[in-house]
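During the second half of the funding period, the structural biology subgroup turned its attention to how the target accommodates small molecules. The most pressing case was adenosine-5'-triphosphate, which had performed well in the primary screen but for which no bound structure existed. We therefore specified the complex as follows and requested a full 3D prediction, including the ligand pose.
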Amino acid sequence: MRRLTPKQLQAQHRRQGVRPTAEQAPAAETVTQTGAGEPLAEYRVTQEPYYRAVGDEIELYEAAYEIRMPMMLKGPTGCGKTRFVEYMAWKLGKPLITVSCNEDMTASDLIGRYLLDANGTRWQDGPLTLAARHGALCYLDEVVEARQDTTVAIHPLTDARRILPLEKKGEVVKAHPDFQLVVSYNPGYQSVMKDLKQSTKQRFAALDFDYPEHDVEVEIVAHESGVDADTASKLVHIAERARNLKGHGLDEGLSTRMLAYAGSLIARGIDPLKACRVALVRPITDDLDMRDALDAAVTTYF
Ligand SMILES: Nc1ncnc2c1ncn2[C@@H]1O[C@H](COP(=O)(O)OP(=O)(O)OP(=O)(O)O)[C@@H](O)[C@H]1O
Ligand SMILES: [Mg+2]
């Protein structure tokens, strides 16, 4: 299982001896064809990721996968979307290719480009093409960050055609039967300008994610950080208070991820007050009054 940004993908290509056309490849260099035997071997999720179901999302996802329905996971940061996809890839026994989208990403970063190697130029599939050709789950994390012309590249893959035209190469890739596209999306963050087009949104079924209910979140925080249930429960109580301040001075609530970080510090012997200050309060706001309010919530419980 690898999580590669387009830049990291380019770096990986360089390590493998494949040079972008702009660079000159040394004549004697041996070029490794990316995993000629099993192209997606490095993307297999070999160990079961810990995922605590919060509702019927696993059954729903499995049903959606049966018909290869493109999926959109919506929810605030740090609430378990990425972990869920990793878990589903493991459960379905499919490789997972993750792309962190950003506004510098071009369609070529997703689809592929010609590279110059010792024998001349050759085509290098991008992560989306790799997934479509060989049958992986392709996870586009924070898909709204990508420019619209990049997002549109996924359209023919996410309707009944299930094809990916590689215009520069003059090839049309027919998606492998196992291929599925899954994207994540944080509805709170983007401006109208950055929202997805309706023609993109309407190609997906969507699962809503949110912070879990108290007892479930306690279980997750305890598991992830190694603190006992009592300490985890205190952390969740603090988060619940902070979440009530969303829209009243806080842009976003404290995530399950932050609680796991705070718990991990506590489990390593850091004083809980300090751990909460460093891992919960300081990162989430610079507003001094808000920090005081959150510090007060922390001292109520620790
Ligand atoms: N249901 C869950 N089961 C197991 N772990 C969870 C769950 N929900 C949250 N977590 C914990 O919270 C952390 C953050 O979750 P994750 O990385 O999946 O968030 P995300 O929703 O993808 O956030 P972002 O939008 O910022 O990418 C995980 O590393 C894990 O420790
Ligand atoms: Mg994520």
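Two results from this model are relevant to the next phase. Confidence is low (pLDDT under 50) at residues 12-36. Residues 81-82, 141, 184 surround magnesium ion (ligand 2) (CB under 6 Å).
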